[in-house]
Amino acid sequence: MRHLRHLALGAPRAEGRRSLAVQAKRDWGAAYVLLAPAAGLLGLWFIYPIVDTVVLSFQRVNLFQFSQRTYVGFSNFHQLLDDPAFHHSLFITLVFVVVVVPAQTAAALALAAVLQGVQVGRTFFRTTFFLPYMTSTVAVTTVFMKLFVIGGPLAAVASAVFGVANATWYAQPNLALAFLVIVYVYMYIGLYVVVFLGGIENVPVELHEAAKVDGAGVVQRFRFVTVPSVRPYIFFVVVAGFIQAVQVFDQAYVIASNGAILGSPAGATATLVIFLYQQAFRLNNLGYGSAAAVVLLLIVFAGTVLTRRLLPER
Amino acid sequence: MGSLSSEGAGPTQSVRGTRHSSLRRRAMAIFSATAVASALPVVALPAQSAGAAPQQAVTITLGYAGGTNINPYYNHVIAAAEKALPGIRVKPVVYATYDDQLNEMPAQVAAGTIPDIIVWDNSAPVGQYAKQGAILGLNALVAAQHVDLTADPPALVRAWTIDGKLYGVPLYLQNSAFVYNLDMLKAAGITKLPSSMQQVGADALAVYHKTGKAGLTILDNLFHLTQYVLAFGGGWGFGRTIYSKANVAGLQFLVNLFQQHAAVLPNQVGASWDGVAVADNQAAMSDGGPWYIGFMASSATKVNYALTPIPTSSGQKFVVTYGGAYSITAHSHDPAADMRLIKYLTNAASEQYVATDTSFGFVPAMSRYINLYRQKTPKYANITNAVLASGRTLDYPPSTIQFGNALVSGFENIVLRHSGTVPALLSTLQKTYGSR
């Protein structure tokens, strides 16, 4: 009976499995169809340029005769190793990243913690902090150039408070990179404040209350409750901040407008992307610039892996 | 249970089936809509072309470096050209500055987005573009459209001719000059304009010591540095004479003034270019050109200034004479139509407008309108003879952009970082960019 019953039920079960398999195949088919446009665009705008950049890095290319490319092996990379301008751009980028990433992460976390405590007008402050990120880089940089010009309001304040020479910051080799850092952090800090606010709002109130009962002050609660709780957000901000900072370009480009050469003054703002852009599009060394872009890609990859190792997400 | 399970699967599967069917329908709908939307332009294109063909309409892109003084001129002549040439529409491609134009054009050539016609501000980069086949030789087109080049000074036409091939139809004559802010010089007790470059240096120091302001400003690019090299009897000689005594003297003259705080870069005083520094009373002297006339008239009406040929170390004076011209790029779809447009843009009416629109700041290329410009622009009158009689040329090395970048970078290192020397810089540049 059991045997018969099994036989009786077996056929429909097998049929059901077949039907599910067909169903699953259809679902996959629909998924591929729906994903195809996005995947195609991703391939066209992201994958293809990366692959082409890698290919270009092994070639000598003249922009005037773009279709005529010469394979040169690792020659462009060997040249990079011997190029003082490339070494200089690596150094400038390293200094920039080392200053910017910790500064913007710490400042954004502190600001977010303060904003979390604000009961009235939090949305206003959140929007205000986010505004520079949404504003045109050219506009923000140009305004800062007016503020940090010789005799300008912030140049004068910096001179009075810190004893820095009252000079046009973006025109002085010893101040131009600091100027770049200030403009950059000002622009991006709002984005990270919003990220941290999202994290801080998710910290259970009970944790803060328990810490308060245990006698923890504001600073202690921030250090022992807030910071550990938003660790995944810190990881995200450090990684995203690193990836963005290592690619800094726009602000340095604006500084060098009005006929000055890129990286002005005297190479003080010659970041890695400025270097590769200048090589590829101004000096007509597209293959060489692509080799520098590949190095940049490797740096971003290595930096992300390193950050993950040093700062576990959880 | 098995039965129940089996029965239970029915409705679930039915619901899934319905959902799947619905999903499939939606997917098909989206797919179909996308396909239709994608196909529409393809379907529509032949219809448009078919409709446009009988009218022979052609849109020509015209690239030029714009500016507050320059844009009105082009707006005027483009509007006039479109009215006079039925079927031709002009789409301006305005570069922020001439440097931006030179920087962007190589990438535009590679991308195939370079305008059909471009306006050069001088002939320095033309050799590179001609050699690479990025611009067209114009002899046949000029002959076919009967463009009269005999109306222009022969030297100006020669400036656009390489190995017998014409690559540019002259639009305007241009020259360098020296600019003095008379108010600042007067404040420093200087009442007589310097007669030599050494006197310029002495006056610049006097201005700095007596007023605390810069005596001289220079925009750090190849063109402006070249003026001082020429003032000391040097020149680049198309790459043959980069490292020469005279060139070293010219750049060293500037370096010395920077070291004594008598000279500044415009951006050091918050100015975007030398004209702004002079107009804002931040610097007493600068090399410049007729473009100061329009700028000062609109931006610094209360500032007294003078424009003269550039003093030299030997006491004589000179200007660099060059000019702007139209070229047709190899990317152009309809060179014949382009030349029709160029013919109009360089005809007598357009050239007369160059002469009368003094804010444009350029001198007409046509000989017969140069005197008209002189009458309309008294400030220009005292440099006219030098322009026509003893104009010097720029003679940049062949890899002009690369050479310019390296020169400016080295110069900035010397004056801003006190790193390197002028002889070492020019010696290196001679080895890298020099030609025999």
Question: What keyword list fits this structure?
Answer:
heterodimer; A: 314 residues; mainly alpha; MetI-like fold; 2 domains; two-stranded antiparallel ribbon; 13 helices; 2 strands; 76% helix; 4% strand; flat; B: 436 residues; alpha/beta; D-Maltodextrin-Binding Protein, domain 2; 8-stranded mixed beta sheet; 5-stranded mixed beta sheet; 53% helix
Helix content of chain B: 40-55%
Radius of gyration of chain A: 27 Å
- By DSSP, the count of extended strands of chain A is 2
Order of helices and strands of chain A: HEEHHHHHHHHHHHH
Instruction: Categorize the overall geometry of chain A.
Output: flat
CATH superfamily membership of the largest domain in chain B: Periplasmic binding protein-like II
Top-tier CATH class of the largest domain in chain B: Alpha Beta
- Which stretches of chain B of 5+ consecutive residues score pLDDT under 50? 1-21, 27-54
How much strand content do the residues of chain B show? 15-25%
The number of helical runs of chain A is: 13
Radius of gyration of chain B: 29 Å
Distance between the termini of chain A: 57 Å
Helicity level of chain A, as a percent range? over 70%
CATH topology of the largest domain in chain B: D-Maltodextrin-Binding Protein, domain 2
**Strand order across the largest sheet of chain A:** 1-2
What do we call the CATH homologous superfamily of the largest domain in chain A?
A: MetI-like
